[in-house]
């Protein structure tokens, strides 16, 4: 992908550094790091250097010490904002981490976003939703896979089982990222990676950056495992509704297969993720139990902000993208 256009002083300083300028500095912290468009785009760019990179940025920038220091500052601002909003559970028992994950998800008070999509979203809104999710779904499973060399024993085996399904069991066309490509194409969208990043607000990019923050820092491997467990458990029912929403709009298997696959696969994964992966890691390394739970809570917090913004814009008759829909349409 091409390096996105800056949105403010942070991303402008970063772009300059990646093109040979001085090391970027954070300076004054944004009021809300979790929603700030400039900060979240900057963090997305920093993280993307460790995935596919950018066509117009040298590969060596991945290990530029000034950029890494800048990334760490941004990550700390994001973590501090999450800690302010998340209340750690009292008397955490490492032996009950699996059960606690299900309890946290059951108590979550996120807006009924998937019901809205299933019953009310029009085609334009569904296309916007897919554009938002493309920042992650087109590289689905890759961020979580960073945990594999950082785990041992049964927890590692559980993660391999989950990730193998995410990658289609070795069949390229069954990889979940490939299924998402077909959904995008059925909706008339550009399926090239990063095509819509310039339209995505900070609350969307935060959902992606959270996974990369956990995955690229070994210290947060417990939170990454918790995030994956929460991701799998909260997946089946919303994906069933998304598929039904597409069918309501007249779309067939090419569009719905990605969502239908997640209904089946993640229904199998949820117990493996909660008890074998997250619970197994907590039993192996009890000192990580708090991080595992934090990962689940951070997932719920960022997803709540993401869907709340979309619903707020849609119910007001507005686009959820940063630019008018005409600009997005020009790219499809």
Describe the protein:
This protein has 332 residues and is mainly alpha-helical. The chain folds into two domains: 9-85, no CATH class; 94-329, Heme Oxygenase, Chain A (Up-down Bundle). The chain contains 15 helices and no strands. It has helices at 9-18, 37-48, 65-85, 97-107, 113-119, 123-137, 142-145, 153-166, 176-186, 202-215, 221-233, 236-248, 253-284, 289-315, 325-329.
Under the CATH scheme, the architecture of the largest domain is Up-down Bundle
| Content of β-strand | under 5%
Low-confidence stretches: 324-332
Radius of gyration: 19 Å
Q: How far apart lie the N and C ends? A: 16 Å
Q: Give the CATH topology of the largest domain.
A: Heme Oxygenase, Chain A
* Secondary-structure-derived class: mainly alpha
> What is the domain total for the residues?
2
Return the average pLDDT rounded to an integer: 95
Shape: globular
